[in-house]
Amino acid sequence: MNLYFTRHGETEWNVKKKIQGTTDTSLNENGIRQAKLLAQTLLNKRESGAFHPVRVYTSPYLRAAQTAQILADALHIPCETMDGLREMDLGEWEGLNWDIIRAEYGERYLFWNSHRRFVHTPGGENYDEVLGRTLAALDEILARETEDVLIVTHSAVLMALRCYLAGLPFEEMVRCFRTKNTELVMLEETEIRQAIGRYAAGE
Q1: Which are the catalytic amino acids?
Q2: Residue 10: its pLDDT value, please?
Q3: How far is Cα 155 from Cα 55, in angstroms, rounded to an integer?
Q4: Of the options 3.30.70.600, 1.10.1740.10, 3.40.50.1240, 3.40.50.150, the CATH number for the domain spanning 14-51+75-142+155-200
Q5: 10 Ramachandran zone, left/alpha/beta (phi>0; psi -120 to 50)
Q6: Which of 85, 93, 96 is nearest to 140 (CA)?
Q7: How does residue 50 score in pLDDT terms, banded at 50, 70 and 90?
Q8: 49 pLDDT band (50/70/90 cuts)?
Q9: What is the DSSP letter of 84?
């Protein structure tokens, strides 16, 4: 069993480089086009025998749910919302861009950026909390499924998960694991189970 992850399609806030977090934005026209292109890629992958999806799981936020429904409709498989796959709550920083945050939050931003796994965004979450609920959601998915699944989620979720799997400091996540809209990432069941066990052990 493999788990195929993708980030939602483009939104107008992506274009404007505004931080979305829990702000429930929708896909723009290009985002819909990206989702349809990914759907065709996945159909081709299934026809070649390399992909056997039985279900799409998605974050509840509109931009992810819209992407997921386009994929599920094309693949003719069910789509289910899972709250643990939602984007990181970035608190006061939502609606801003990183240049503004660096300028206005100064030392607070620098401290967060250098200790980002365990330091909270102002009024929001930290990446360890995102990782914990993501792994809990994946554990539930693995308990339900025995065949490939497709998971539609968000940038912070994917960067935190992939950084943890790679054993890298979370300060490296953007450099190593920045994820484009509708980029496809395949992870094996074994490595997800190992990560769940490591996190449960307090690593």
Answers
A1: 8, 87
A2: 98
A3: 21
A4: 3.40.50.1240
A5: beta
A6: 85
A7: confident
A8: confident
A9: G
Does the pTM surpass 0.90? The reply is: yes
Name, in order, each residue with C-beta under 8 angstroms of 75's C-beta and a sequence gap of 6 or more.
Answer: 39, 42, 43, 46, 53, 56, 150
Long-range residue pairs from 196-201, CB within 8 A, at least 24 positions apart, any chain = 196/135, 196/138, 196/139, 196/142, 199/131, 199/132, 199/135, 199/164
Query: Among residues of the chain, what percentage have pLDDT more than 70?
Result: 100
pLDDT in tens, 161-195: 999 999 999 999 999 999 999 999 999 999 999 99
For residue 154, give the nearest of 10, 30, 17, 1 by alpha carbon. 10
How close are the terminal C-alpha atoms of the chain, in Å? 25
- Cα angle 21, 12, 121; round to 5: 20
| Domain boundaries defined on the chain | 14-51+75-142+155-200
